[in-house]
Amino acid sequence: MSASLISEDNLCGKTLLHMSASGSSIIAELLRLKDNIPEVFSDSDESQEKKYVPVLIDFAYLKRGEEFERKLNASTGMLDLDQEFFDNYQPILMRFYTLFESIVKYLSDYLDFLDKLQSGIFIQYTTDIVLQDVDGKQLMCECLYLYGAMLLLLERHMPGPMREKIVIAVMRHQGEMSLEHHEDVCKLIRSTGYDPNSTDKHPKNYPENFFSRFAIPSDIVRLLVQTLQSDDIYRVARSFPSPEHRSVRLANQAGMLYVILYFAPELLHKSDTAMRETVDRHFGENWIITIYMGHVIDLSHEWARYKAAKKALDNILTLSNITSISRQNLTWFQEAKLELAQFLTEGILTPEFLLRNTEALLQCMRKSNVALRWRLLHRRAWQPKFAELIRSQISPNAVMDLLLTSAQLEYQVKNMFGDLLDQRQAKWDECKGKVMERLTELSEYFTGEKALTRVKRDERMMQWFAGLAKEVEAMNEGEEHSTVMGRKIQKTITALEEVEQFEQIDTDEQLKAFLGDTRELLRQLVRVVNIKHADLSKMEVISDLSYGFEILNDYTSVLHDRVRSEPNYSVLLRAGFVK
Length: 579
Fold this sequence. Notes:
Layout: H1 11-33, H2 61-73, H3 76-119, H4 127-132, H5 134-157, H6 160-174, H7 182-189, H8 208-211, H9 218-230, H10 246-249, H11 251-260, H12 265-270, H13 272-282, E1 288-291, E2 295-298, H14 299-302, H15 307-314, H16 319-343, H17 351-356, H18 358-378, H19 384-393, H20 396-422, H21 424-445, H22 459-474, H23 482-498, H24 503-506, H25 509-529, H26 533-542, H27 556-565, H28 570-578
Antiparallel strand pairs: 1-2
Helix pairs in contact: 1-3, 1-5, 3-5, 3-6, 3-7, 5-9, 5-11, 6-7, 9-11, 13-15, 16-18, 16-19, 16-20, 18-20, 20-28, 21-22, 21-25, 23-25
């Protein structure tokens, strides 16, 4: 078996990777097109493009096509209007149709992959083996999640009637025979009756009926749900090790689980045990979540129609519990604000300070981002009693202050840490050279032959320091695990502390000071060894703000007002944009 599922020569892994990348690109196109929907499909009565409405028809055309064409052909004006519409909008209409077709092809590729995996085409891989692999479980979950996200975002941004009119317009002018997968496209994008502008009402059995238009193997869905329920598939625990931060640690896969559960609605309706376990582990503190690039979901609203899911949520959505959670968040918020002010005091954050206080800085980043995430998301609470409680505790200005000051600290620390990583080898060589030089000097000092020395020759001391110098020379920061190297250096520091007990050294203050300086250089070596790319990766995970893409629109006016009243505030915006 290949060493890695995602190695170049692994067909199974490459297929999964390709599907995941393809799914992300499809959603990116969907999000681009949502901002370019022709006005003719808008609900506005003031649109100048409303003249084209008579030549647009939904899927009723599939039953009464001949009647529509007769009516159209009976009027020269209507025929000209019809042709004018398609000539004007053909490029954008074809992009929409290509998007719909891409979703169908993506699903076809996914189902084909599952069939090959279960039938043994990939030889050494089965579903269970792929799900035991770290990369495999991530990609398997992502591929189904991306398909589900496509469906939800399609419904949110491109209403069903609009989709139907686009498909019929393309079919009439391009010809059904020239369109690949046309029947499946019609089956997929047929209107569900959901109106994104009327979120209080949902069609019956929505969105599970929409998700079931093309069947996904139920055993695969169950396996993926169980994987997301029980595992930390992205190993975010390395970035958020504290149990207090569990809900943030699992936030990304919580969004994935929310989407994939619509492929198994029986769990939402009937499985009290599974839903209680899911809510306690993933949504115990966060009932406002995001899916794909910050699209906000309030579970208290979306799961209100599902008996088991609602019952599990009701256990945590009590006023006393939400009050307790919001007070804890308020405490973290205020503590983070104070710590950020201390670290951002001019002259404090230097490379030496960063090396000595990396863990403290990471802890500050964790606290500020955990506090910020919860506050940003839950200010969007759908239930008025919770929204009023949460919004009254902290002003929008204070929320933006924490976001921008935390972004400023992250920006400075990441840049400084990146420079230290680039200079790591040079810094190692510099400190190591100084330590070797000092130990060699100490060895020569005890020969008794150095000018101005008044010590007797001490072979034992001379050989001991010379041996220590050779040990340091043999150290190589790139050859061994940092923990092993750190232990070797610490052993050397301890030896230099113990040697001070000897009478020849204990009575010589200058020599003791020389040894103290050498130990400090060795401690610098330890700090250099601990400059790791893993810490920079942790910072990237901790500082992630992708969940805020939609939410930050709520604070545009707040930022504008602050910059107008305090022009210097704009300095912080650069770090905010980077974040």
